[in-house]
Design a protein that fits this description.
- The chain is built from no helices and 24 strands.
- It has one domain: AttH-like domain (AttH-like fold, Beta Barrel).
- The chain has 346 residues and is mainly β.
- A hairpin with a 2-residue loop joins strand 13 and strand 14.
- 0% of the residues lie in helices and 62% in strands.
- The mean pLDDT is 95.
- The protein is globular and about 55 Å long.
- Strands 2, 4, 5, 6, 7, 8, 9, 10, 11, 12, 13, 14 and 15 form a 13-stranded antiparallel beta sheet that branches.
Length: 346
C-alpha cells in the first residue's frame, strides 16, 4: 500500500493515465496540462495556504483555485479563543486554466487576482513564498473591519513534503496530484482593522496544499493538518483519505525536523450531527492516536443543483501520542491544527 516514488517521472502517459502511482518525499511527477485527456471544465488546479498562530490561537487561510468552469477565491480568519470565524468568497466564471497557476510547485512563479472585495498575490522565489492577500470589508469575530496579510513562508530545500499521485477506480484517467508542505515558518504582518501585528519568528506556521488534477464529478474527502513547534522542534502531520483510490499509497505522514515519517491508513472518528463535539484519530499501524478538541467549525454550503459543496473545516487542538520511524514516541498537548470533512459535486 506504500509505493514510494524515488525518481523524477512524467505524470501521465500518452493515454492520459498516471505512469506510476504512489507517494514521494519530493514533487517528482512532471505535470503537463496538455497531456490530460478530458474537457478543460474537468481539470482542477489550486494553491491553498493555511497559517496558524500557535501562540495566540488564530488561523488565516487563502484559496486561489481554477476549477475549470470557474475560479474560486476565498479568505478566512478563525479565532480559536472566541470560537468564531469570518470568511469572504469570490467567483470568476469560465476560467478554464487561464488564471496562471504554475504547473510546478518548485519553480519560481507568480499569480495574482483581485476584484472590489478581495485581492491576492502569491509569489515564489527560491525558498521564499511571499503571500499578500486582503479583504478590506471583512468583519472579524472581534468586530474589527478589514484583514490585510503580508507574509513570507520559508521552505528550505532540505525539507521533505508529502506528495501523492493516484487515480479513481471508476475512471483511471481521473487523477489527483498533490503536495502538502508543512512546517513552514511565517514572518511578516497581519493587519486587522487599523491594528497591525508583526509576526514573531516561531509563533506562526504555514502549510501549502498544492493540487492539480482531473476529478470525477462527485467526491467526499477527509483532511487534517497541523504544524508548529513541539519542544522547540518543528513538527507537523498530514492525514487524509476518501479522495481517489489510495491502494497504491496514503498521504498520511508525520513531519519531524524536516523529515517525513510515513504512516499507513488513518481513520477520522467524527461525531454524528455535531462537528464541535470531540473527534478521535487512529492509524492502522498504531503509530497515531489523537484526540481532537474542536474550537471553530468553518463551514459553508453551496447548492446550485448541478454544483454542490458542503464543507466543514474545523480548527482546534490535538492531544495524544504519535510514533516516529525509529519508534520514538512524541506527546502532543493541545497542539493547534485543523481537520475537515468536505463533499463536492461539480
Amino acid at each position: 500500500m506504500q509505493h514510494e516514488i524515488t525518481r523524477a517521472i512524467p505524470l501521465l502517459d500518452e493515454k492520459g493515465h498516471i505512469t506510476e502511482e504512489g507517494w514521494a518525499r519530493r514533487p517528482l511527477w512532471k505535470y503537463t496540462r496538455k497531456d490530460i485527456k478530458s474537457s478543460k471544465f474537468a481539470i482542477k488546479e489550486w494553491d491553498y495556504y493555511a497559517l496558524v498562530n500557535q501562540e495566540k490561537g488564530y488561523a488565516v487561510t487563502a484559496t486561489f483555485s481554477d476549477l475549470g468552469y470557474a475560479g474560486v477565491f476565498a479568505i478566512s480568519y478563525s479565532d480559536l479563543t472566541m470560537k468564531a470565524f469570518a470568511q469572504k468568497d469570490a467567483i470568476r466564471f469560465f476560467t478554464r486554466g487561464k488564471l496562471g497557476l504554475s504547473p510546478s510547485s518548485t519553480e519560481d512563479s507568480q499569480v495574482s487576482w483581485s476584484n472590489n472585495k478581495l485581492r491576492f498575490a502569491f509569489i515564489k522565489r527560491g525558498e521564499k513564498r511571499h503571500l499578500m492577500f486582503a479583504c478590506p470589508d471583512l468583519k472579524l469575530p472581534d468586530g474589527r473591519i478589514g484583514l490585510d496579510v503580508n507574509v513570507t513562508l520559508t521552505q528550505k530545500p532540505e525539507m521533505e513534503s508529502i506528495n501523492i499521485a493516484t487515480s479513481w477506480k471508476e475512471n483511471r484517467k481521473a487523477f489527483y496530484l498533490n503536495e502538502k508542505v508543512n512546517c513552514m515558518p511565517v514572518e511578516g504582518t497581519i493587519r486587522r482593522g487599523l491594528d497591525k501585528e508583526t509576526l514573531l519568528l516561531g509563533e506562526t506556521w504555514g502549510v501549502l496544499d498544492w493540487g492539480r488534477g482531473r476529478w470525477t464529478y462527485q467526491n467526499r474527502w477527509y483532511w487534517s493538518s497541523a504544524s508548529g513547534l513541539l519542544e522547540n522542534i518543528p513538527f507537523g502531520f498530514n492525514l487524509g483519505y476518501g479522495f481517489s483510490d489510495r491502494s497504491p499509497a496514503s498521504e498520511n505522514a508525520l513531519f519531524y525536523n524536516g523529515v517525513i515519517h510515513k504512516l499507513d491508513e488513518v481513520t477520522f472518528h467524527i461525531p454524528e450531527n455535531d462537528y464541535l463535539l470531540p473527534w478521535k484519530f487512529t492509524s492502522s499501524d498504531n503509530r497515531l492516536n489523537l484526540n481532537f478538541e474542536p474550537a471553530v467549525d468553518r463551514n459553508s454550503t453551496t447548492n446550485f443543483i448541478l454544483i454542490k459543496s458542503d464543507q466543514h473545516q474545523v480548527f482546534g487542538y490535538f492531544s495524544g501520542k504519535v510514533v516516529l520511524d525509529d519508534k520514538s514516541e512524541l506527546t502532543l498537548t493541545r497542539f493547534p491544527g485543523f481537520a475537515e470533512d468536505v463533499y463536492n459535486r461539480w
